[in-house]
Amino acid sequence: MQRFYNATGITHVAADAHMHTAVGCCERFNASLRSMARAAYFDSAFLPVGRVASPQPPSPPAPPFPPPYPPLSDAQLHPPGEEECRGIVVVTEATRPDGASLTVKVPQWRQGLAVHLILPPGASIAKAWHATVAGRSGNVVSLLTEQRPGASEKGNMGFQVMVKSSGRWGGASATCNSHCLAARVEVQPDTDRGGAVVWVVPAVWRPHALVTLELGEYRWFKVLSTAHAKVLTRTASKLTLALDAFPNPDHGFSVTLDVAPHGASQPFTTCSPVNQPPSPPPPPPPP
User: Fold this and answer.
1) Is 48 or 145 the better-scoring residue by pLDDT?
2) Element (H, E) at 25
3) Which of 40, 156, 193, 253 could lock onto 103 through a cystine, CB 3.0 to 4.6 A?
4) pLDDT at residue 202 is higher than 80
5) Residues 51, 214: Cα–Cα separation, whole Å
């Protein structure tokens, strides 16, 4: 290149600040940099222009929050239902002035089967054999069967219960595997926010099914948070919730309220959604 400069008569002369023809390109580039710096100072949207020369790969998308549930297995998606209730019979072994002795015969016996005993109003279970009381809801009591059934004095196989009641014994009936009847409900104080946490453990977890929580004396409450269930509708003393796909480690869900527990009444669950329209009247009898 130097030989070319010598052959063509081109010489390199040191330039100074007064030789604008020599330093024009440098001044133009310097002016462009200063304009970009001023624009970047007042408008951050101009900053990407200065990074064109060194592009960076895009940032990976943020993971979803909360993380999605894993896919449900067939057993989780279709928990035991009413098919296990076929043939359940409540046998009255004996009656007393203050109650009765019953045997609940369960043909499809298995350990942990949720049986819901529907008693007359005002009746309660005093003692149970070969089954454990899991929850109460008004006159409905949920019991979980033990490993094997027992035989009553009259030879009836099943689990036995002693019922206390006032007045004449009116009989009882039973069903099973309900996600909303007589769930186990516990109330604990929320020390952080001065309210109450209601823990609910249904007898059977049925994904996305509806449960109504009746709070009784906890009137005009405010729901602060829920876990493993979502509030759909409410009234002054009731909540209808949809269960999540999975329960908490205790196989239930929780609701945090802004009222302190006072023990005036025990919350319980039912299967009747709140704000449900009334049933239509029965058709008139034929002429």
Assistant:
1) 145
2) helix 20-42
3) 156
4) yes
5) 61
